[in-house]
Amino acid sequence: MLKNFKNGYAVCGNDETAKREKNDCVVRAIANACDINYEQAHAFVKEKFGRKDGQGTLMFNHVLKELKTVQFEQVGQLDLFNPTNERQIKHMGDCPKFGGELKNPKYKHKPVAYTVKEFARRFNKGNFILQVNKHALAVKDGVIVDNKNYQTDGYRRVVESAFQVTV
């Protein structure tokens, strides 16, 4: 059981859109990693990724790699520290299985991908969006922000692709 875990659904709050949604892991990962509300993330993913309500986000990895700077619609209270709601998204790499260089340095004998737990331990400062097999999650300052059911066994999943989010 992970101690450094936070429920990713907390970002949904009482949002009516979130209550009707399913297959929205990319929306929640972006909301959590970018420190925006669910409504902003939902609108962003719908616009940039062409996501339809209630369906998963296709081509998430490919589209996110192309984005360098993203701007979110201002909804609700204005953020005085970042009034434009602009974030930088940097692709950190893909796992060795997909020809990437994002590999765990603990292993010297062959290239081995990070697990979610090892990634959170190694990159414990900053906000990150991770893609694992058919799922997305966020890591914030070493804390894994994901579906509650992944607290017990989700930390063993292989990180297929990672993105760093900065203001």
Describe the structure.
- The protein is α+β, with helices and mostly antiparallel strands and 167 residues long.
- The chain has one domain.
- It is built from five helices and seven strands.
- It has helices at 16-20, 25-34, 38-49, 60-66, 116-122; strands at 5-7, 69-71, 86-94, 127-132, 135-140, 143-146, 161-166.
- The chain has a seven-stranded mixed sheet, sandwiched between helices.
- Helix 2 crosses helix 3.
- The radius of gyration is 15 Å and the shape is globular.
- The N and C termini lie far apart (31 Å).
Within the largest sheet, what's the order of strands? 1-6-5-4-7-3-2
Number of domains: 1
Rg is 15 Å
Distance between the termini: 31 Å
Helix/strand/pairing class, anyone?
Answer: alpha+beta
Low-confidence stretches: none
The topology string of helices and strands comes to EHHHHEEHEEEE
- Percentage of β-strand residues: 15-25%
Give me the count of strands: 7
Task: Estimate the global geometry from the Cα principal axes.
Answer: globular
**Residue-averaged pLDDT:** 89
Helical fraction equals 10-25%
The number of helical runs is 5
Major sheet summary line? 7 strands, mixed
Structural descriptors:
167 residues, alpha+beta, 7-stranded mixed β-sheet, 7 strands, 25% helix, 22% strand
Task: Please provide a brief summary of the model.
It is built from five helices and seven strands, in the order βααααββαββββ.
Q: How does the SSE layout of this entry go?
A:
Blueprint: E1 5-7, H1 16-20, H2 25-34, H3 38-49, H4 60-66, E2 69-71, E3 86-94, H5 116-122, E4 127-132, E5 135-140, E6 143-146, E7 161-166
Parallel strand pairs: 1-6
Antiparallel strand pairs: 2-3, 3-7, 4-5, 4-7, 5-6
Helix pairs in contact: 2-3
